[in-house]
Specification:
heterodimer, A: six-stranded mixed sheet, 0% helix, B: mainly beta, seven-stranded mixed sheet, globular
Protein backbone atom coordinates (compact mmCIF):
# COMPACT_ATOMS: atom_id res chain seq x y z
CA UNK A 1 0.00 0.00 0.00
CA UNK A 2 0.98 3.63 -0.05
CA UNK A 3 2.47 4.79 3.20
CA UNK A 4 5.23 7.00 4.40
CA UNK A 5 6.56 6.65 7.92
CA UNK A 6 9.12 8.27 10.15
CA UNK A 7 11.61 6.59 12.41
CA UNK A 8 11.65 9.04 15.32
CA UNK A 9 8.64 10.80 16.76
CA UNK A 10 10.76 13.36 18.67
CA UNK A 11 14.20 14.86 18.27
CA UNK A 12 15.98 17.37 20.48
CA UNK A 13 19.12 19.18 19.41
CA UNK A 14 21.18 22.03 20.74
CA UNK A 15 20.90 25.36 19.03
CA UNK A 16 23.57 25.66 16.41
CA UNK A 17 23.92 21.91 15.93
CA UNK A 18 22.87 20.06 12.83
CA UNK A 19 19.78 17.87 12.86
CA UNK A 20 18.79 14.93 10.75
CA UNK A 21 15.20 13.81 10.40
CA UNK A 22 14.52 10.48 8.76
CA UNK A 23 11.67 9.02 6.80
CA UNK A 24 10.97 5.59 5.35
CA UNK A 25 8.55 4.98 2.53
CA UNK A 26 7.07 1.77 1.27
CA UNK A 27 6.15 2.41 -2.35
CA UNK A 28 9.24 1.89 -4.48
CA UNK A 29 7.46 3.45 -7.45
CA UNK A 30 6.95 6.81 -5.73
CA UNK A 31 8.55 9.54 -7.73
CA UNK A 32 8.22 12.78 -5.81
CA UNK A 33 8.97 13.59 -2.19
CA UNK A 34 8.48 16.73 -0.16
CA UNK A 35 9.48 17.82 3.32
CA UNK A 36 7.10 20.08 5.22
CA UNK A 37 7.37 22.02 8.44
CA UNK A 38 4.28 22.52 10.55
CA UNK A 39 4.03 24.87 13.46
CA UNK A 40 1.27 24.53 16.01
CA UNK A 41 -2.14 25.46 14.65
CA UNK A 42 -0.88 26.18 11.16
CA UNK A 43 -0.86 24.49 7.81
CA UNK A 44 2.24 22.70 6.46
CA UNK A 45 4.98 24.89 5.07
CA UNK A 46 7.05 23.67 2.12
CA UNK A 47 10.74 23.18 2.89
CA UNK A 48 12.31 21.25 0.07
CA UNK A 49 11.43 18.59 -2.47
CA UNK A 50 13.21 15.95 -4.51
CA UNK A 51 12.29 13.76 -7.42
CA UNK A 52 13.19 10.12 -7.69
CA UNK A 53 15.77 10.75 -10.40
CA UNK A 54 17.92 12.60 -7.88
CA UNK A 55 19.61 11.48 -4.66
CA UNK A 56 20.44 14.83 -3.13
CA UNK A 57 19.13 18.34 -3.20
CA UNK A 58 20.24 21.37 -1.23
CA UNK A 59 18.48 24.50 -0.15
CA UNK A 60 19.26 27.20 2.31
CA UNK A 61 20.47 25.37 5.46
CA UNK A 62 18.55 22.26 4.38
CA UNK A 63 19.52 19.19 2.43
CA UNK A 64 17.33 16.29 1.39
CA UNK A 65 18.84 12.91 0.68
CA UNK A 66 17.01 10.14 -1.12
CA UNK A 67 18.12 6.53 -1.02
CA UNK A 68 15.87 4.59 -3.32
CA UNK A 69 17.63 1.32 -2.64
CA UNK A 70 16.43 1.25 0.95
CA UNK A 71 13.48 3.59 0.40
CA UNK A 72 14.76 6.16 2.82
CA UNK A 73 14.51 9.92 2.85
CA UNK A 74 16.24 12.33 5.19
CA UNK A 75 16.16 16.03 5.93
CA UNK A 76 19.28 17.67 7.24
CA UNK A 77 19.02 21.08 8.87
CA UNK A 78 22.29 22.88 9.41
CA UNK A 79 23.02 25.25 12.28
CA UNK A 80 19.60 24.86 13.85
CA UNK A 81 17.85 27.91 15.21
CA UNK A 82 15.00 28.25 17.74
CA UNK A 83 12.65 28.96 14.86
CA UNK A 84 13.31 25.50 13.50
CA UNK A 85 11.32 23.98 16.36
CA UNK A 86 8.26 22.40 14.75
CA UNK A 87 6.89 19.12 13.49
CA UNK A 88 8.44 17.92 10.25
CA UNK A 89 6.63 15.66 7.81
CA UNK A 90 7.80 13.89 4.74
CA UNK A 91 5.23 13.43 2.04
CA UNK A 92 5.15 11.30 -1.04
CA UNK A 93 3.37 11.31 -4.35
CA UNK A 94 2.81 7.72 -5.37
CA UNK A 95 3.64 7.09 -9.02
CA UNK A 96 0.22 5.72 -9.74
CA UNK A 97 -0.92 8.62 -11.86
CA UNK A 98 -2.84 10.10 -8.95
CA UNK A 99 -1.61 13.45 -7.78
CA UNK A 100 -2.47 12.95 -4.14
CA UNK A 101 0.12 13.58 -1.45
CA UNK A 102 0.54 11.04 1.35
CA UNK A 103 2.06 12.21 4.62
CA UNK A 104 4.29 10.38 7.05
CA UNK A 105 3.84 10.34 10.81
CA UNK A 106 5.90 13.41 11.63
CA UNK A 107 8.88 14.19 13.86
CA UNK A 108 8.75 16.89 16.48
CA UNK A 109 12.02 18.80 16.46
CA UNK A 110 12.90 20.77 19.58
CA UNK A 111 15.82 23.17 19.59
CA UNK A 112 17.37 23.61 23.02
CA UNK A 113 19.05 26.95 23.79
CA UNK B 1 4.20 32.85 -4.50
CA UNK B 2 1.04 30.79 -4.57
CA UNK B 3 -1.37 31.52 -1.76
CA UNK B 4 -4.30 29.50 -0.50
CA UNK B 5 -6.80 31.11 1.83
CA UNK B 6 -8.84 28.90 4.12
CA UNK B 7 -11.82 30.18 6.06
CA UNK B 8 -12.83 30.13 8.84
CA UNK B 9 -9.71 29.52 10.90
CA UNK B 10 -11.77 28.40 13.87
CA UNK B 11 -15.36 27.34 14.23
CA UNK B 12 -17.45 25.94 17.05
CA UNK B 13 -20.74 24.32 16.22
CA UNK B 14 -23.41 22.37 18.00
CA UNK B 15 -23.75 18.66 17.52
CA UNK B 16 -26.10 17.86 14.65
CA UNK B 17 -25.48 21.03 12.69
CA UNK B 18 -23.48 21.46 9.48
CA UNK B 19 -20.35 23.49 8.95
CA UNK B 20 -18.87 24.73 5.70
CA UNK B 21 -15.15 25.37 5.23
CA UNK B 22 -13.88 27.32 2.23
CA UNK B 23 -10.58 26.98 0.45
CA UNK B 24 -9.58 29.58 -2.12
CA UNK B 25 -6.55 29.84 -4.37
CA UNK B 26 -5.83 33.55 -4.51
CA UNK B 27 -3.36 33.92 -7.33
CA UNK B 28 -3.54 30.73 -9.35
CA UNK B 29 -6.05 28.36 -10.81
CA UNK B 30 -6.31 25.20 -8.79
CA UNK B 31 -7.30 22.34 -11.03
CA UNK B 32 -7.04 19.99 -8.09
CA UNK B 33 -7.74 20.55 -4.42
CA UNK B 34 -7.19 18.20 -1.54
CA UNK B 35 -8.79 18.01 1.88
CA UNK B 36 -6.98 16.65 4.90
CA UNK B 37 -7.93 16.02 8.50
CA UNK B 38 -5.44 16.11 11.33
CA UNK B 39 -6.09 14.95 14.86
CA UNK B 40 -3.86 16.18 17.71
CA UNK B 41 -0.30 14.90 17.54
CA UNK B 42 -1.06 12.96 14.40
CA UNK B 43 -0.25 13.31 10.75
CA UNK B 44 -2.37 14.74 7.99
CA UNK B 45 -4.77 12.17 6.63
CA UNK B 46 -6.05 12.71 3.11
CA UNK B 47 -9.83 12.71 3.01
CA UNK B 48 -10.55 13.44 -0.63
CA UNK B 49 -9.26 14.83 -3.89
CA UNK B 50 -11.42 17.15 -5.94
CA UNK B 51 -11.01 18.28 -9.52
CA UNK B 52 -12.79 21.36 -10.76
CA UNK B 53 -16.14 20.52 -12.23
CA UNK B 54 -16.19 16.86 -11.27
CA UNK B 55 -17.08 14.74 -8.27
CA UNK B 56 -14.53 14.35 -5.53
CA UNK B 57 -12.63 11.12 -5.03
CA UNK B 58 -12.80 10.03 -1.41
CA UNK B 59 -10.21 7.98 0.41
CA UNK B 60 -11.20 4.66 1.86
CA UNK B 61 -13.15 5.04 5.08
CA UNK B 62 -14.23 8.63 4.48
CA UNK B 63 -18.01 9.04 4.28
CA UNK B 64 -18.86 11.02 1.18
CA UNK B 65 -22.34 11.83 2.47
CA UNK B 66 -20.95 13.27 5.65
CA UNK B 67 -18.10 15.25 4.15
CA UNK B 68 -19.50 17.02 1.13
CA UNK B 69 -16.94 18.51 -1.20
CA UNK B 70 -17.70 21.00 -3.91
CA UNK B 71 -15.14 22.32 -6.40
CA UNK B 72 -17.30 24.45 -8.61
CA UNK B 73 -14.60 26.85 -9.81
CA UNK B 74 -10.87 26.86 -10.37
CA UNK B 75 -10.33 29.00 -7.31
CA UNK B 76 -12.78 27.65 -4.76
CA UNK B 77 -13.45 24.36 -3.05
CA UNK B 78 -15.68 23.84 -0.05
CA UNK B 79 -15.91 21.09 2.53
CA UNK B 80 -19.19 20.75 4.39
CA UNK B 81 -19.26 18.61 7.50
CA UNK B 82 -22.88 17.53 7.78
CA UNK B 83 -24.58 16.53 11.00
CA UNK B 84 -21.40 17.16 12.91
CA UNK B 85 -20.61 15.17 16.04
CA UNK B 86 -17.93 15.68 18.68
CA UNK B 87 -15.76 13.02 17.06
CA UNK B 88 -15.61 15.22 13.95
CA UNK B 89 -13.72 17.81 15.96
CA UNK B 90 -10.37 18.12 14.24
CA UNK B 91 -8.04 20.35 12.27
CA UNK B 92 -9.07 20.43 8.61
CA UNK B 93 -6.55 21.55 6.02
CA UNK B 94 -6.94 22.12 2.31
CA UNK B 95 -4.29 22.05 -0.38
CA UNK B 96 -4.39 23.22 -3.96
CA UNK B 97 -2.38 22.47 -7.06
CA UNK B 98 -2.29 23.85 -10.57
CA UNK B 99 -1.57 20.45 -12.01
CA UNK B 100 0.58 17.36 -12.15
CA UNK B 101 3.94 19.09 -12.42
CA UNK B 102 3.18 21.88 -10.03
CA UNK B 103 3.58 21.93 -6.32
CA UNK B 104 1.04 21.91 -3.54
CA UNK B 105 0.03 24.98 -1.60
CA UNK B 106 -1.63 24.51 1.76
CA UNK B 107 -4.18 26.59 3.54
CA UNK B 108 -3.71 27.62 7.15
CA UNK B 109 -6.25 25.13 8.42
CA UNK B 110 -9.60 25.23 10.19
CA UNK B 111 -10.00 24.15 13.79
CA UNK B 112 -13.46 22.60 14.12
CA UNK B 113 -14.89 21.99 17.56
CA UNK B 114 -18.25 20.26 17.84
CA UNK B 115 -19.96 20.67 21.19
Amino acid sequence: GESVGLHLPTLSVQEGDNSIINCAYSNSASDYFIWYKQESGKGPQFIIDIRSNMDKRQGQRVTVLLNKTVKHLSLQIAATQPGDSAVYFCAETPASGAQKLVFGQGTRLTINP
Amino acid sequence: GAVVSQHPSRVICKSGTSVKIECRSLDFQATTMFWYRQFPKQSLMLMATSNEGSKATYEQGVEKDKFLINHASLTLSTLTVTSAHPEDSSFYICSASEGQNYGYTFGSGTRLTVV
